[in-house]
Amino acid sequence: MRIIETQKISEIVSRLCIEANCRLPKDVKTCIEQSRSSEKWPIACDTLDKIIENYKLADSDNMPICQDTGVACVFLEIGEDLHVKGNIAAAVDEGVRMGYQEAFLRKSVVKDPLFDRKNTRDNTPAMLYTEYIPGDKIIITVAPKGFGSENMSGIKMLRPSDGVDGVINFVLETVEAAGSNPCPPIVIGVGLGGTFDKAALLAKKALLRPIGQAHSDARYAALEYKLLEKVNDLGIGPQGFGGLTTALSVAIEHMPTHIAGLPCAVNINCHVARHITEVI
Length: 280
Description:
- The protein folds into two domains: 2-20 and 65-145, no CATH class; 148-273, no CATH class.
- It starts with a strand and ends with a strand.
- By secondary structure, the protein is α/β, with parallel strands linked by helices.
- It has helices at 6-22, 26-38, 42-61, 88-102, 147-150, 163-178, 196-206, 218-232, and strands at residues 2-5, 71-79, 82-85, 127-133, 138-145, 154-158, 186-194, 247-257, 262-269, 276-279.
- The chain is built from eight helices and ten strands.
């Protein structure tokens, strides 16, 4: 059995926190640039030009793309033939702490959500999600999540009879209610099935799928395309100033559920759709 020291995890998480905050994934950049080339509304064109200029400056100067450097969402896929020597959660938190302090990234996490709301001063704890996979590797994905968009997300326990139309209506209602708040153009993750909490996790994981990569099931791929068209028809546009580009992508993830339910979660991400992955 392969053994990995937790220090290795901390070092990688630290580096990924910095890289994710300073560099957009190539697929996101490409989609933004393609959207710019198809825009007709002058204000939308100007807004997209500024978005492109911003991420180019972040690349060249190694600076954060956005002042909200987010809460660190960390996904670990751990091989069943791998042993991690030490406390994994503590190692991830140490990596977040090191990365956010080294790069002077804004620390936005408060210890208590309701009463004293005192800042933890190191952006910990991370929001940690783990699952086990075959093999002896560990896949680490860091996805800093800003809260201008996270606050605009929603979940609804639909009835099975609501069907496809119910899902479409809820996604559109959520996006329309969000308006300009999540800094569009947005990336939309939709989670279907499971339970209340599982649907929300599916929606967040959907945000990690490369833009332009359709669902492997043709039925869900068609629904993703239809949702993207309908969202963009809302005319909210870049930063809410109108135009053709309200969303860059809609991705759906799903899993089995109870006969009585159709949980539907919508996780919205701003155009700063940050995520980066490394394999040990």
